[in-house]
Amino acid sequence: MVKKSVFFLMLACVFLVFSQIGSVSADSSYQISKVGKPITNSTAITAVSGNDAEGNAYMYILLQGEPAQLAVFDLFNKKMVDQKALAGSSSGWAIEVDEKGEVWIGGTPSNKLYKYNPNQKKLTDLGKATSGSTSIHDIEVDHHGNVYGSTSYEGGVFKYSGGKFQNLGQAANGKTIGRSLAYYPATNTMFVGVGANADLIAWNLSSNAKKSILPQQYKNATSVYDLDQAGGVLFAKLENKQTILMFDAKTYKFKGELTAKSRGVSKLAPNGKDVYFTNDYHLQKMDLQTGKVTASRKTLQGTEAVSLDFVKKGSKTYLAGLLGNTGTFFTYDVASEELVVDHFALPAAGVPIYNLAAGPDGNIYISSYVSDKMGVYHPQSKTFSSISRIGQVESFATVNGKFYLGVYPAGVISELKAPSSPTQLFTIGNGQNRPVAMTGVKGTNYLFIGTHPKNGEIGGSLTIYDTIARNHSVRRNIVKDQSIISLTAHQSYVYGGTSIFSGKNLEGKQNAILFRMKSSSPAGKIEILPLGIKNPRMIHALAADAKKIYGLSDGNFFSYDPQTKKTQTVNIVKNTSGRFNNGTLVIGNDGLIYGTVEGTLFSVHPGTFKKEILKSTGAERLTKGADGVIYFTSKDELFSLKAHQKVMWGKTELLKGQIGKVTIKQAAALWKRNDDGTLEKERTLKPGEEFRVYRYLAEKSGLYGVGGGLFIEKNSASVHYETPSKSKLALLK
């Protein structure tokens, strides 16, 4: 009977458990809530035009979003006739129409190939092209209908034929970016533009012979960004240049330069001698036989061409092109030379979130991928606003109440005074374009900035900005050939973590390092710290509390004690991808360390090092708001994470459904209600025992229901009853 009673009481949870609220919570109950989509936009990445089997002329536009979208527009009535989601992709750089009018699409970061049939309005997901890449940058279809794609970060080319993928390998040793493709059927040669730095490879698909044909003076460019072949001439557009190089596609002889701002040139015009491009907001026609260039009479209204394709409308031939990324396009009657500039109403979509941080004003600032819009979440009003003309923010930091942004692609450091657009302070330069880590240090005026180099450069930098004197210094390659990708401040030091993926293949040759330097001496030496982790490749996040430094390295969470110089680790995920931007850490108000890595949201207890996986997929970046709430991102959405906060009533926790509590003053009976409604004494209660009360019955002198079918009789001499205050009850809601 005793064993039965004790077991029954345990199941019923009727005894109050006295628990002190300590500095670190061990409660594993969390609430994840969707906050909303901070940024919506209509951003056209690229496009292609063509005719379906019935002769309808369409422009196929790839839109950024979660997921990315294919929007199909009738060119001449401007109506959207179809829209398809590109599952698994948030963007797409590659799109091509084959001779049958079918559309081939390359996804990012899925590395997927898709096929769209305009006659059936059917999209087919053909799967991942290669195992080691994230992006398909360009697509070409040969005269046999074989599909080729160039990829990053393998810098390779794949072939899709007969329903199967074949990885043809890397175009050039050491070149990880396969940026562009052009096919010359006369010699079965695929031209591949690669980076970084730039090279142009002529790849004979029959013999498998490869030859670099880019003149040496152009190899300092980042990549060969666009390739087109028309009339036996190869056109190669250099990245971030207004220069197109021309080659003989058969002999590879360099023919000279062409000034152009468009993304390459058109295919050969129906007359067999002209190609088109845009420059200085005009459509330009080049006669391949004479080299003469003629500009259109009308302008393109302040934009340049992203795509250039010939389509038919009845017996007439038109050149059509997307202008910019907002839906503006043009049609050009080749015979009459009539140029019409118009606009499609692009559908809006949620924009993929790239980064976020809590600002000094208590708001959450959210940077988007590719789009220059920044979302702002206002926790007090639970509303969103936006700020334009920002760029892609790689890092945020607050110094003495001022909010700083590190912006890609120019490596710009700006100060933001919301709701105004940011003020640009300086550009880091020195071959750096990604300010991926920033931290301010209390008690100083310094902003420390860690950078990753632009493509083609080797080694990052540590930049120190004096926010009072408003000057900065750049310490390039402070860790030779490595990027500074994480920073945090602790006591009188700044701690930094590096990545070996900094423009040079160092895997297996060097390890990432943890270092520190005196925050008051930004020009001083760095101290390399013993991390105790085997062959780290990246230390991609750092945070600190009063005692220790916490970090992420290749999917491992670690703590470093500056006093003992000892490291403790726990694995979170087995494998990590990327080069630098794949992990975040914050210290929660409950003392736990919260983080994300490879889509996993987790917490770690700093004392026991017990980890808890809170979300196993989809969690990307996180920050802690001024309200103590953890905010994290997933694709285009913002979420909040709230730990279960115990509502304490004296020494005990107040639970939902509880109406009061009783304290035994003198010996009293604990009653059990039988199935027939009678009461049977369970045991005698001792003075000092406490019970939660969940209901009250007006039976006998009154019965307090304490859960599990058990009751205590109302008796002011032996039982003290209390009810919680309204404020306590409100905290439970």
TrEMBL record:
UniProt entry tagged with the keyword ATP-binding: no
Signal sequence segment: 1-26
Annotated protein name in UniProt: WD40 repeat domain-containing protein
Gene3D superfamilies: YVTN repeat-like/Quinoprotein amine dehydrogenase
Keywords from the UniProt entry: Signal
SUPFAM superfamilies: YVTN repeat-like/Quinoprotein amine dehydrogenase (SSF50969)
